[in-house]
């Protein structure tokens, strides 16, 4: 599942992930375990409401690296 972040279409960052969820274009959401709760709270709630699977990644640094970016990422989403 994590390897799909490197190859499939995705969005990274809270605003982009939230927008994609609201547009019903998300297959799976990835959230870093060490992200601040206030940052990911809305994403978790939307995923619950729309029955979207959440995959947890150990660190924001690891999630950023998996997404191919040089900065930390609190969340990311694979697009349908």
Overview of the molecule:
This is Large subunit ribosomal protein L7A. It comes from Sporanaerobacter acetigenes DSM 13106. Keywords: Ribonucleoprotein, Ribosomal protein. The chain is α+β, with helices and mostly antiparallel strands. It has a single domain (4-79), classed as Ribosomal protein L30/S12 (60s Ribosomal Protein L30, Chain: A, 2-Layer Sandwich). It has four helices and four strands, in the order αβαβαβαβ. Helix 2 (14-22) runs parallel beside helix 3 (37-50). The chain is globular, with a radius of gyration of 11 Å. The mean pLDDT is 95.
Salient structural properties:
alpha+beta; 4 helices; 80 residues; four-stranded mixed β-sheet; 42% helix; 60s Ribosomal Protein L30, Chain: A; single chain
The gist of it:
Pfam families: Ribosomal_L7Ae (PF01248). The chain has 80 residues and is α+β, with helices and mostly antiparallel strands. The chain has helices spanning 4-7, 14-22, 37-50, 60-66; strands at residues 10-12, 26-32, 53-57, 75-79.
Which stretches are low in confidence, meaning pLDDT under 50 for 5 or more residues running? none
Determine the fraction of residues in helical runs and give it as a percent range. 40-55%
CATH topology: 60s Ribosomal Protein L30, Chain: A
β-sheet strand percentage = 25-35%
CATH class: Alpha Beta
Number of helices: 4
Going by CATH, the homologous superfamily would be Ribosomal protein L30/S12
Question: How many distinct beta strands?
Answer: 4
Specify the overall morphology.
globular
**Largest beta sheet: what is the strand line-up?**
1-4-2-3
What is the H/E string? HEHEHEHE
Largest sheet: 4 strands, mixed
């Amino acid at each position: 599942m994590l390897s799909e972040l490197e190859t499939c279409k995705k969005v990274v960052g809270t605003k982009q992930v939230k927008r994609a969820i609201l547009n019903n274009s998300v297959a799976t959401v990835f959230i870093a375990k060490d992200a601040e709760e206030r940052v990911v709270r809305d994403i978790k709630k939307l995923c619950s409401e729309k029955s979207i699977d959440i995959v947890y990644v150990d660190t924001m640094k690891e999630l950023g690296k998996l997404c191919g970016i040089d900065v930390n990422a609190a969340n990311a989403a694979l697009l349908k």
